[in-house]
Specification:
By secondary structure, the chain is α/β, with parallel strands linked by helices. It has a single domain, classed as Restriction Endonuclease, CATH 3.40.91.20. It has 6 helices and 8 strands; from the N terminus they run βααββαβββαβααβ. A hairpin with a 3-residue loop joins β2 and β3. The chain starts with a strand and ends with a strand.
Length: 191
């Protein structure tokens, strides 16, 4: 896999290059080691079109986990206690809410760079940068972030409907930057 595009959100690229150049090199190495070809799977999108060999987000994520793990990057979980707001009289919330958590895919143990790998739905891309990374920064787990997403060319070959770099960068550019946003570098990848 290779990095083919980048978007700097809130000065993310400059910030990371100035303070964490070695860690950025590790991220680039991990991306280059992901063998997307081995992550292809047969999927039947539509019966009329037949089977097609597509990239599996699950298999790609396992490759990222393996290569980041070899470099001591670890996921970080924050337990969530849903005690804010109030339920209206007569409503009993699901007991399954106990044990809920939020998770950052990979965090460098010393520099605290948070990395999210997103081969899933579009809403998660925006959530990762505009909410999750801000929350994990506020909690002291990360200083800045990197989001790794497919470009359109790769997204159209994925086994699930995913968003892509070009759409994501456009939305962030038009959203603008808030005073609570942290520096994030978005990396677009392809095979």
């Amino acid at each position: 896999m290779r990095i083919v595009a980048k978007y700097s959100f809130n000065g993310g690229e400059k910030y990371i290059k100035e303070k964490f150049l070695a860690e950025l090199g590790e991220i680039e190495t991990v991306v280059s080691k992901v063998d997307a070809v081995c992550c292809k799977t047969k999927q039947s999108r539509e019966r009329a079109r037949g089977e097609k060999i597509l990239y599996s987000p699950y298999a790609l994520n396992l490759q990222f986990k393996k290569h980041f793990g070899e470099r001591a990057w670890r996921s970080v979980r924050q337990r969530c206690e849903y005690k804010y707001g109030e339920f209206l009289p007569g409503y009993v919330p699901d007991a399954a809410l106990r044990g809920a958590y939020r998770e950052m895919d990979f965090v460098h143990p010393q520099s605290k760079i948070g990395v999210e790998v997103q081969f899933g739905k579009y809403a998660f891309m925006v959530y990762n940068v505009c909410a999750k990374m801000t929350i994990f920064h506020k909690l002291g787990f990360i200083n800045c972030g990197v989001e790794i997403v497919p470009v359109k060319n790769m997204a159209k070959e994925m086994s699930t409907g995913v968003s892509y770099f070009e759409q994501f960068a456009w939305d962030l550019e038009h959203r603008g930057i808030s005073n609570i946003d942290i520096p994030v570098l978005i990396l677009g990848v392809d095979v």
